[in-house]
Amino acid sequence: MSAALAIDVRGMTKRFGKRTVVDDVDLAVATGEIVGFLGPNGSGKTTTIRMICGLLRPDAGEGTVLGLDVRTQSAEIKRQVGYMTQRFSFYEDLTIAENLTFVARLYELDPVDEAVAKTLDGLGLTSRKDQLAGTLSGGWKQRLALAACIMHQPKLLLLDEPTAGVDPKARREFWDEIHRLAGDGLTVLVSTHYMDEAERCHRIGYIAYGRMLATGTVEEVVRGSGLVTFVVHGALKPAQIRSLEATDGVEQVAPFGATLHVVGTDRGKLEAALEPLKREAGIKVEPGETSLEDVFIKFMTGAQERAA
Ligand SMILES: Nc1ncnc2c1ncn2[C@@H]1O[C@H](COP(=O)(O)OP(=O)(O)O)[C@@H](O)[C@H]1O
Ligand SMILES: [Mg+2]
């Protein structure tokens, strides 16, 4: 076993009927690392997470989670992992304390009252413990859910789109908390749709149609995409944008505020495509930075074309 890796799995594969929804996925996550798991809906994020935490048996693949065999030691893995499911929610008509008590009993924490009191205190919710969970704001609900997932002091936290529908300030606070936990040695694998959240991870993995298309730091993934970006300043006419989109070498044209990002793989072709615009009055073309969004759109389009 590799102690430095909290997750070390290879070839993870899951089929539902004839469909392969997770296809030969490798994933390595170091202890204390925060890894973001990105990809369009239906690409296999939840299924992968469920295989890692021992809830779903892989059809193929091997490796370890927390040093335990992912194929044969799922019961032990489950005990040491905190898993926050997609659209996780509490019993809205139970109080905050009652909800936490329920979770504490589920994990057979002993004594229950002490575990609950400690969690309430950590959240700063002791004075509100008798409030119904349903009356909490979205941000507080997320914090409570997170606290419940780590009540049994797991070593690995699996979060499945934990911040979907949460406002930006609450998301920021949620991420501050994740970083605090990781600083204390907890390993975190978190699926998300948000680009800004990807930037907050130590590393990311991008999955589409069951295939892991890229892993690495955000910078590595952007560089590895081979995309080149130019930024066009100035007002282009709709016809000019359409003709740019139709030009060979131009893969993406996307407005970013008052500018236009023009993205492609072949620098020479891209420069040639932009050459006529450079001569226009009031238009300026300069090299830009490729955004993670540009990269993901390329991945998604490519995966869609292969699947079609
Ligand atoms: N229990 C299941 N039975 C059949 N198909 C499933 C089941 N769970 C998930 N799927 C299918 O597997 C694919 C991947 O789903 P999922 O892992 O939930 O993707 P994501 O979390 O990335 O949105 C989807 O097409 C989904 O419909
Ligand atoms: Mg999902």
From TrEMBL:
Which key words are in the record?
ATP-binding, Nucleotide-binding
InterPro entries xref list: AAA+_ATPase, ABC_transporter-like_ATP-bd, ABC_transporter-like_CS, P-loop_NTPase
Question: Residue limits of the ABC transporter domain?
Answer: 7-234
Task: Identify the Pfam families for this entry.
Answer: ABC_tran
GO terms assigned for molecular function: ATP binding
Q: Please give the superkingdom of this protein's source.
A: Bacteria
ATP-binding as a keyword of this entry, yes or no, is yes
Q: PANTHER family of this UniProt entry?
A: ABC TRANSPORTER G FAMILY MEMBER 20 ISOFORM X1, ATP-BINDING CASSETTE, SUB-FAMILY H, MEMBER 1
Q: Belongs to which family? A: Belongs to the ABC transporter superfamily.
UniProt name for this protein: ABC-2 type transport system ATP-binding protein
